[in-house]
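Chapter review: from sequence to fold.
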Amino acid sequence: MNDTAESLPFEVAAYMRELGQRARAAARELGRADSGAKNTALHAIADAILANRDHLKSENRKDLDTGRQRGLDTALLDRLELTDARIDAMAEGLRQVAALPDPVGAISDLDYRPSGIQVGRMRVPLGVIGIIYESRPNVTADAAALCLKSGNASILRGGSEALHANQAIARCIEQGLAVAGLPATAVQVVATTDRAAVGELLKLDKYVDVIVPRGGKGLIERIMAETRIPVIKHLHGVCHTYIDDQADIDKAVRVAFNAKTQRYGTCNTMETLLVAEGIAARVLPPLCKMYQEAGVELRGCERTRALVDGIVAATEADWDEEYLAPILAVRVVDDLEAAMDHIEKHSSQHTDVIITENLTRARRFLREVDSSSVMVNASSRFADGFEYGLGAEIGISTDKLHARGPVGLEGLTTLKFIVLGDGHTRG
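The C-alpha coordinate string follows.
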Protein backbone atom coordinates (compact mmCIF):
# COMPACT_ATOMS: atom_id res chain seq x y z
CA MET A 1 0.00 0.00 0.00
CA ASN A 2 2.90 2.38 -0.64
CA ASP A 3 2.07 3.59 -4.13
CA THR A 4 1.68 7.30 -4.56
CA ALA A 5 -1.47 8.81 -5.97
CA GLU A 6 0.18 9.15 -9.39
CA SER A 7 1.04 5.45 -9.65
CA LEU A 8 -2.22 3.96 -8.42
CA PRO A 9 -3.38 1.79 -11.29
CA PHE A 10 -7.01 1.51 -10.26
CA GLU A 11 -10.15 3.50 -9.63
CA VAL A 12 -10.53 5.01 -6.15
CA ALA A 13 -13.79 3.27 -5.23
CA ALA A 14 -12.34 -0.15 -6.04
CA TYR A 15 -9.14 0.69 -4.18
CA MET A 16 -10.98 1.73 -1.01
CA ARG A 17 -13.27 -1.29 -1.19
CA GLU A 18 -10.17 -3.51 -1.38
CA LEU A 19 -8.74 -1.81 1.71
CA GLY A 20 -12.00 -2.50 3.51
CA GLN A 21 -12.04 -6.17 2.55
CA ARG A 22 -8.43 -6.63 3.63
CA ALA A 23 -9.04 -4.82 6.91
CA ARG A 24 -12.03 -7.02 7.71
CA ALA A 25 -9.95 -10.16 7.14
CA ALA A 26 -7.08 -8.74 9.20
CA ALA A 27 -9.45 -7.90 12.05
CA ARG A 28 -10.24 -11.59 12.48
CA GLU A 29 -6.54 -12.42 12.72
CA LEU A 30 -5.93 -9.60 15.20
CA GLY A 31 -8.79 -10.89 17.31
CA ARG A 32 -6.77 -14.08 17.81
CA ALA A 33 -3.48 -12.28 18.55
CA ASP A 34 -2.28 -12.31 22.14
CA SER A 35 -0.86 -9.34 24.03
CA GLY A 36 2.70 -10.52 23.47
CA ALA A 37 2.40 -10.41 19.68
CA LYS A 38 0.79 -6.97 19.73
CA ASN A 39 3.43 -5.59 22.07
CA THR A 40 6.20 -7.12 19.96
CA ALA A 41 4.80 -5.33 16.94
CA LEU A 42 4.59 -2.00 18.77
CA HIS A 43 8.20 -2.20 19.94
CA ALA A 44 9.34 -3.27 16.47
CA ILE A 45 7.50 -0.32 14.88
CA ALA A 46 9.22 2.00 17.35
CA ASP A 47 12.59 0.47 16.45
CA ALA A 48 11.86 0.88 12.74
CA ILE A 49 10.90 4.54 13.19
CA LEU A 50 14.16 5.29 14.99
CA ALA A 51 16.22 3.28 12.49
CA ASN A 52 14.61 5.16 9.59
CA ARG A 53 14.89 8.60 11.18
CA ASP A 54 16.84 10.14 8.27
CA HIS A 55 14.43 8.73 5.68
CA LEU A 56 11.42 10.02 7.63
CA LYS A 57 12.91 13.51 7.76
CA SER A 58 13.81 13.37 4.07
CA GLU A 59 10.25 12.41 3.09
CA ASN A 60 8.87 15.01 5.47
CA ARG A 61 10.96 17.70 3.75
CA LYS A 62 9.13 16.90 0.51
CA ASP A 63 5.83 17.60 2.28
CA LEU A 64 7.19 20.81 3.81
CA ASP A 65 8.51 22.04 0.45
CA THR A 66 5.16 21.33 -1.18
CA GLY A 67 3.36 23.00 1.68
CA ARG A 68 5.41 26.19 1.32
CA GLN A 69 4.72 26.23 -2.40
CA ARG A 70 1.00 25.90 -1.63
CA GLY A 71 1.20 28.79 0.81
CA LEU A 72 0.47 26.89 4.03
CA ASP A 73 0.74 29.15 7.06
CA THR A 74 3.52 28.93 9.62
CA ALA A 75 1.38 27.20 12.26
CA LEU A 76 0.33 24.43 9.87
CA LEU A 77 3.89 23.94 8.64
CA ASP A 78 5.01 23.61 12.26
CA ARG A 79 2.42 20.89 12.93
CA LEU A 80 3.52 19.16 9.75
CA GLU A 81 7.23 19.05 10.55
CA LEU A 82 8.94 15.92 11.88
CA THR A 83 11.81 17.03 14.09
CA ASP A 84 14.18 14.65 15.88
CA ALA A 85 12.27 15.31 19.11
CA ARG A 86 8.94 14.45 17.46
CA ILE A 87 10.35 11.26 15.95
CA ASP A 88 11.66 10.28 19.39
CA ALA A 89 8.23 11.07 20.84
CA MET A 90 6.51 8.86 18.24
CA ALA A 91 8.70 5.93 19.19
CA GLU A 92 8.23 6.57 22.90
CA GLY A 93 4.46 6.79 22.40
CA LEU A 94 4.44 3.35 20.78
CA ARG A 95 6.38 1.89 23.70
CA GLN A 96 4.03 3.53 26.19
CA VAL A 97 1.03 1.94 24.49
CA ALA A 98 2.81 -1.42 24.58
CA ALA A 99 3.21 -0.99 28.35
CA LEU A 100 -0.52 -0.39 28.91
CA PRO A 101 -2.75 -3.24 30.09
CA ASP A 102 -4.45 -5.03 27.20
CA PRO A 103 -8.21 -4.55 27.57
CA VAL A 104 -9.12 -7.31 25.11
CA GLY A 105 -10.48 -10.46 26.72
CA ALA A 106 -10.96 -8.94 30.18
CA ILE A 107 -14.01 -10.44 31.91
CA SER A 108 -16.08 -8.43 34.36
CA ASP A 109 -19.27 -8.77 36.41
CA LEU A 110 -19.16 -12.58 36.29
CA ASP A 111 -21.87 -13.81 38.64
CA TYR A 112 -24.07 -16.85 39.25
CA ARG A 113 -27.74 -16.67 38.35
CA PRO A 114 -30.46 -18.65 40.18
CA SER A 115 -30.45 -21.13 37.30
CA GLY A 116 -26.82 -22.01 38.02
CA ILE A 117 -25.31 -20.41 34.93
CA GLN A 118 -22.66 -17.71 35.26
CA VAL A 119 -23.22 -14.48 33.33
CA GLY A 120 -20.52 -11.89 32.73
CA ARG A 121 -19.17 -9.49 30.15
CA MET A 122 -16.03 -9.70 28.03
CA ARG A 123 -14.23 -6.76 26.44
CA VAL A 124 -13.64 -7.25 22.69
CA PRO A 125 -12.36 -5.12 19.78
CA LEU A 126 -14.73 -3.00 17.72
CA GLY A 127 -13.34 -4.61 14.54
CA VAL A 128 -12.24 -2.18 11.81
CA ILE A 129 -11.66 1.50 12.57
CA GLY A 130 -11.37 4.16 9.89
CA ILE A 131 -9.48 7.27 11.02
CA ILE A 132 -9.52 10.49 9.00
CA TYR A 133 -7.10 13.18 10.13
CA GLU A 134 -5.21 16.25 8.98
CA SER A 135 -1.65 17.62 9.02
CA ARG A 136 0.37 16.06 11.87
CA PRO A 137 2.06 12.87 10.58
CA ASN A 138 2.73 11.59 14.10
CA VAL A 139 -1.00 10.83 14.30
CA THR A 140 -0.31 7.94 11.88
CA ALA A 141 1.87 6.20 14.46
CA ASP A 142 -0.36 7.13 17.41
CA ALA A 143 -3.55 5.89 15.74
CA ALA A 144 -1.92 2.70 14.52
CA ALA A 145 -0.62 1.94 18.02
CA LEU A 146 -3.96 2.41 19.77
CA CYS A 147 -5.90 0.43 17.19
CA LEU A 148 -3.37 -2.38 17.17
CA LYS A 149 -3.18 -2.72 20.97
CA SER A 150 -6.98 -2.75 21.23
CA GLY A 151 -7.15 -5.53 18.62
CA ASN A 152 -8.65 -3.45 15.81
CA ALA A 153 -7.62 -3.34 12.17
CA SER A 154 -7.37 0.23 10.92
CA ILE A 155 -7.62 2.24 7.73
CA LEU A 156 -5.79 5.56 8.15
CA ARG A 157 -6.47 8.46 5.83
CA GLY A 158 -4.10 11.35 6.55
CA GLY A 159 -4.10 14.74 4.93
CA SER A 160 -2.60 15.22 1.49
CA GLU A 161 -0.16 17.73 2.96
CA ALA A 162 1.60 14.89 4.86
CA LEU A 163 1.49 12.20 2.15
CA HIS A 164 5.21 11.42 1.95
CA ALA A 165 5.79 11.32 5.70
CA ASN A 166 2.68 9.22 6.28
CA GLN A 167 3.76 6.67 3.69
CA ALA A 168 7.25 6.50 5.20
CA ILE A 169 5.72 5.85 8.63
CA ALA A 170 3.43 3.25 7.03
CA ARG A 171 6.48 1.31 5.85
CA CYS A 172 7.85 1.30 9.42
CA ILE A 173 4.51 -0.04 10.62
CA GLU A 174 4.61 -2.81 8.01
CA GLN A 175 8.11 -3.79 9.17
CA GLY A 176 6.96 -3.99 12.79
CA LEU A 177 3.90 -6.07 11.97
CA ALA A 178 6.07 -8.49 10.00
CA VAL A 179 8.44 -8.94 12.97
CA ALA A 180 5.47 -9.97 15.13
CA GLY A 181 3.95 -12.22 12.47
CA LEU A 182 0.82 -10.08 12.22
CA PRO A 183 -0.85 -9.29 8.89
CA ALA A 184 0.46 -6.24 7.05
CA THR A 185 -3.16 -5.29 6.36
CA ALA A 186 -3.83 -4.82 10.07
CA VAL A 187 -2.83 -1.17 9.53
CA GLN A 188 -3.40 0.33 6.09
CA VAL A 189 -2.49 3.92 5.28
CA VAL A 190 -4.46 5.25 2.30
CA ALA A 191 -1.96 5.95 -0.47
CA THR A 192 -3.95 8.30 -2.66
CA THR A 193 -4.45 12.04 -2.21
CA ASP A 194 -7.66 11.89 -4.24
CA ARG A 195 -10.34 13.63 -2.15
CA ALA A 196 -12.82 11.00 -3.31
CA ALA A 197 -11.06 8.48 -1.05
CA VAL A 198 -12.71 10.01 2.03
CA GLY A 199 -16.16 9.73 0.49
CA GLU A 200 -15.53 6.11 -0.50
CA LEU A 201 -14.26 5.25 2.97
CA LEU A 202 -17.47 6.64 4.43
CA LYS A 203 -19.47 4.20 2.25
CA LEU A 204 -17.70 1.09 3.58
CA ASP A 205 -20.30 0.25 6.22
CA LYS A 206 -20.01 -3.41 5.20
CA TYR A 207 -16.37 -3.49 6.35
CA VAL A 208 -15.75 -0.55 8.71
CA ASP A 209 -17.28 -0.56 12.20
CA VAL A 210 -16.53 3.00 13.31
CA ILE A 211 -15.08 6.23 11.90
CA VAL A 212 -12.88 8.52 14.01
CA PRO A 213 -12.37 12.00 12.51
CA ARG A 214 -9.53 14.16 13.83
CA GLY A 215 -9.73 17.58 12.25
CA GLY A 216 -11.68 20.78 11.96
CA LYS A 217 -15.40 21.30 12.43
CA GLY A 218 -16.00 21.31 8.67
CA LEU A 219 -14.44 17.86 8.23
CA ILE A 220 -16.45 16.37 11.06
CA GLU A 221 -19.73 17.88 9.86
CA ARG A 222 -19.09 16.48 6.38
CA ILE A 223 -18.45 13.02 7.77
CA MET A 224 -21.62 13.10 9.87
CA ALA A 225 -23.65 14.09 6.81
CA GLU A 226 -22.22 11.45 4.48
CA THR A 227 -21.86 8.21 6.43
CA ARG A 228 -24.06 5.57 8.01
CA ILE A 229 -21.06 4.22 9.95
CA PRO A 230 -21.03 5.14 13.67
CA VAL A 231 -18.71 8.11 14.36
CA ILE A 232 -16.66 8.89 17.47
CA LYS A 233 -16.36 12.66 17.26
CA HIS A 234 -16.19 16.02 18.85
CA LEU A 235 -17.20 19.06 16.86
CA HIS A 236 -15.35 21.67 18.90
CA GLY A 237 -14.27 22.62 22.40
CA VAL A 238 -16.08 25.63 23.84
CA CYS A 239 -14.91 25.11 27.42
CA HIS A 240 -16.09 27.24 30.37
CA THR A 241 -14.69 28.07 33.78
CA TYR A 242 -17.21 29.46 36.30
CA ILE A 243 -15.83 31.31 39.34
CA ASP A 244 -18.46 31.04 42.07
CA ASP A 245 -18.95 33.77 44.69
CA GLN A 246 -17.75 31.25 47.29
CA ALA A 247 -14.48 30.57 45.50
CA ASP A 248 -11.01 30.97 47.00
CA ILE A 249 -9.77 33.99 45.04
CA ASP A 250 -6.11 32.93 44.83
CA LYS A 251 -7.14 29.46 43.71
CA ALA A 252 -9.61 30.87 41.18
CA VAL A 253 -7.06 33.22 39.62
CA ARG A 254 -4.43 30.49 39.37
CA VAL A 255 -6.75 27.92 37.79
CA ALA A 256 -8.47 30.31 35.38
CA PHE A 257 -5.17 31.77 34.18
CA ASN A 258 -3.75 28.31 33.50
CA ALA A 259 -6.92 27.13 31.75
CA LYS A 260 -6.47 29.82 29.10
CA THR A 261 -2.74 30.44 28.79
CA GLN A 262 -1.06 27.06 29.32
CA ARG A 263 -1.73 26.35 25.61
CA TYR A 264 -3.97 28.26 23.27
CA GLY A 265 -4.58 25.87 20.38
CA THR A 266 -6.08 22.86 22.14
CA CYS A 267 -9.69 21.72 22.41
CA ASN A 268 -9.57 21.70 26.23
CA THR A 269 -8.43 25.32 26.54
CA MET A 270 -10.94 27.60 28.28
CA GLU A 271 -12.71 29.87 25.79
CA THR A 272 -15.28 31.55 28.09
CA LEU A 273 -14.80 32.74 31.68
CA LEU A 274 -17.95 33.16 33.79
CA VAL A 275 -17.72 35.05 37.09
CA ALA A 276 -20.40 35.42 39.77
CA GLU A 277 -21.44 39.02 40.31
CA GLY A 278 -20.76 38.81 44.04
CA ILE A 279 -17.04 38.18 43.53
CA ALA A 280 -16.40 39.82 40.16
CA ALA A 281 -15.05 43.13 41.52
CA ARG A 282 -12.39 41.25 43.51
CA VAL A 283 -11.45 38.63 40.90
CA LEU A 284 -11.65 40.28 37.51
CA PRO A 285 -9.27 43.26 37.89
CA PRO A 286 -6.21 41.22 38.94
CA LEU A 287 -7.05 38.26 36.69
CA CYS A 288 -7.71 40.37 33.60
CA LYS A 289 -4.48 42.27 34.19
CA MET A 290 -2.63 38.93 34.09
CA TYR A 291 -4.36 37.99 30.84
CA GLN A 292 -3.59 41.34 29.25
CA GLU A 293 0.06 41.15 30.27
CA ALA A 294 0.19 37.68 28.67
CA GLY A 295 -1.16 39.13 25.40
CA VAL A 296 -4.69 37.72 25.66
CA GLU A 297 -7.41 39.77 23.98
CA LEU A 298 -10.45 40.02 26.26
CA ARG A 299 -14.01 40.31 24.97
CA GLY A 300 -16.45 41.08 27.74
CA CYS A 301 -20.05 41.79 28.62
CA GLU A 302 -21.13 45.23 29.87
CA ARG A 303 -20.64 44.33 33.55
CA THR A 304 -17.13 43.04 32.80
CA ARG A 305 -16.18 46.19 30.89
CA ALA A 306 -17.41 48.34 33.76
CA LEU A 307 -14.90 46.64 36.06
CA VAL A 308 -11.85 46.43 33.77
CA ASP A 309 -10.48 48.87 31.19
CA GLY A 310 -9.28 47.82 27.74
CA ILE A 311 -11.81 45.06 27.09
CA VAL A 312 -13.52 44.75 23.71
CA ALA A 313 -17.32 44.45 23.76
CA ALA A 314 -18.35 40.80 23.31
CA THR A 315 -20.89 39.96 20.64
CA GLU A 316 -23.43 37.15 20.90
CA ALA A 317 -21.24 35.09 18.57
CA ASP A 318 -18.33 35.22 21.04
CA TRP A 319 -20.17 32.98 23.50
CA ASP A 320 -20.17 30.16 20.90
CA GLU A 321 -16.63 30.63 19.60
CA GLU A 322 -13.75 28.16 19.87
CA TYR A 323 -10.92 30.65 19.42
CA LEU A 324 -7.90 28.31 19.65
CA ALA A 325 -6.00 31.58 20.09
CA PRO A 326 -5.11 34.14 22.80
CA ILE A 327 -8.68 35.48 22.91
CA LEU A 328 -11.06 35.01 25.84
CA ALA A 329 -14.76 35.82 26.28
CA VAL A 330 -15.64 37.04 29.79
CA ARG A 331 -19.11 37.32 31.29
CA VAL A 332 -20.36 38.33 34.72
CA VAL A 333 -23.39 36.22 35.72
CA ASP A 334 -25.80 36.54 38.64
CA ASP A 335 -25.10 33.19 40.29
CA LEU A 336 -24.59 29.45 39.81
CA GLU A 337 -28.00 29.06 38.19
CA ALA A 338 -27.21 31.74 35.59
CA ALA A 339 -23.79 30.16 34.94
CA MET A 340 -25.31 26.75 34.28
CA ASP A 341 -27.95 28.33 32.05
CA HIS A 342 -25.17 29.96 29.99
CA ILE A 343 -23.26 26.67 29.77
CA GLU A 344 -26.40 24.79 28.75
CA LYS A 345 -26.92 27.24 25.88
CA HIS A 346 -23.36 27.70 24.67
CA SER A 347 -21.22 24.73 25.78
CA SER A 348 -20.03 22.18 23.22
CA GLN A 349 -20.23 19.54 26.00
CA HIS A 350 -16.46 19.11 26.05
CA THR A 351 -15.14 20.35 29.44
CA ASP A 352 -16.66 22.73 31.97
CA VAL A 353 -15.26 23.80 35.35
CA ILE A 354 -16.51 25.35 38.60
CA ILE A 355 -14.22 27.07 41.09
CA THR A 356 -15.88 27.06 44.52
CA GLU A 357 -15.37 26.13 48.16
CA ASN A 358 -19.06 25.28 48.53
CA LEU A 359 -19.39 21.49 48.36
CA THR A 360 -23.13 21.57 47.73
CA ARG A 361 -22.72 23.85 44.73
CA ALA A 362 -19.80 21.77 43.44
CA ARG A 363 -21.89 18.60 43.59
CA ARG A 364 -24.79 20.30 41.86
CA PHE A 365 -22.50 21.51 39.06
CA LEU A 366 -21.06 18.00 38.65
CA ARG A 367 -24.54 16.50 38.49
CA GLU A 368 -26.29 19.01 36.25
CA VAL A 369 -23.69 20.17 33.72
CA ASP A 370 -23.98 17.79 30.76
CA SER A 371 -20.42 17.67 29.40
CA SER A 372 -17.97 14.85 28.76
CA SER A 373 -15.70 16.20 31.52
CA VAL A 374 -16.91 18.28 34.46
CA MET A 375 -14.36 19.55 36.98
CA VAL A 376 -14.16 21.22 40.38
CA ASN A 377 -11.23 23.52 41.21
CA ALA A 378 -9.01 22.24 38.39
CA SER A 379 -7.88 23.58 35.03
CA SER A 380 -9.79 22.39 31.96
CA ARG A 381 -6.38 21.58 30.45
CA PHE A 382 -6.45 18.33 32.44
CA ALA A 383 -9.13 16.94 30.06
CA ASP A 384 -6.65 14.67 28.33
CA GLY A 385 -6.17 10.93 28.04
CA PHE A 386 -2.65 10.96 29.48
CA GLU A 387 -3.69 13.10 32.46
CA TYR A 388 -6.67 10.80 33.10
CA GLY A 389 -4.39 7.77 33.30
CA LEU A 390 -5.47 6.30 29.96
CA GLY A 391 -1.88 6.40 28.66
CA ALA A 392 -2.91 7.71 25.26
CA GLU A 393 -6.03 8.76 23.40
CA ILE A 394 -7.42 8.66 19.89
CA GLY A 395 -9.36 11.86 20.55
CA ILE A 396 -11.97 13.35 22.87
CA SER A 397 -15.58 12.42 22.24
CA THR A 398 -18.41 14.78 23.09
CA ASP A 399 -20.96 12.13 22.12
CA LYS A 400 -22.75 10.00 24.69
CA LEU A 401 -22.53 6.68 22.82
CA HIS A 402 -20.52 4.63 22.88
CA ALA A 403 -17.49 6.49 24.22
CA ARG A 404 -17.45 9.86 25.98
CA GLY A 405 -14.51 12.06 26.92
CA PRO A 406 -10.91 11.01 26.13
CA VAL A 407 -11.02 7.81 24.08
CA GLY A 408 -8.21 5.42 24.97
CA LEU A 409 -7.80 1.70 24.52
CA GLU A 410 -10.99 0.83 26.39
CA GLY A 411 -12.95 3.29 24.24
CA LEU A 412 -11.85 1.35 21.15
CA THR A 413 -13.44 -1.83 22.48
CA THR A 414 -16.94 -2.92 23.35
CA LEU A 415 -18.53 -5.49 25.66
CA LYS A 416 -20.33 -8.71 24.90
CA PHE A 417 -22.20 -10.95 27.31
CA ILE A 418 -20.70 -14.35 28.06
CA VAL A 419 -22.45 -17.28 29.71
CA LEU A 420 -20.74 -20.22 31.43
CA GLY A 421 -22.72 -23.38 32.04
CA ASP A 422 -22.20 -27.08 32.61
CA GLY A 423 -24.96 -28.68 30.61
CA HIS A 424 -27.58 -26.28 31.93
CA THR A 425 -30.97 -26.26 30.20
CA ARG A 426 -33.83 -23.85 30.71
CA GLY A 427 -36.95 -25.28 32.31
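Two observations follow directly from the output. The chain has 14 helices and 16 strands. The first strand starts at residue 107 and ends at 112.
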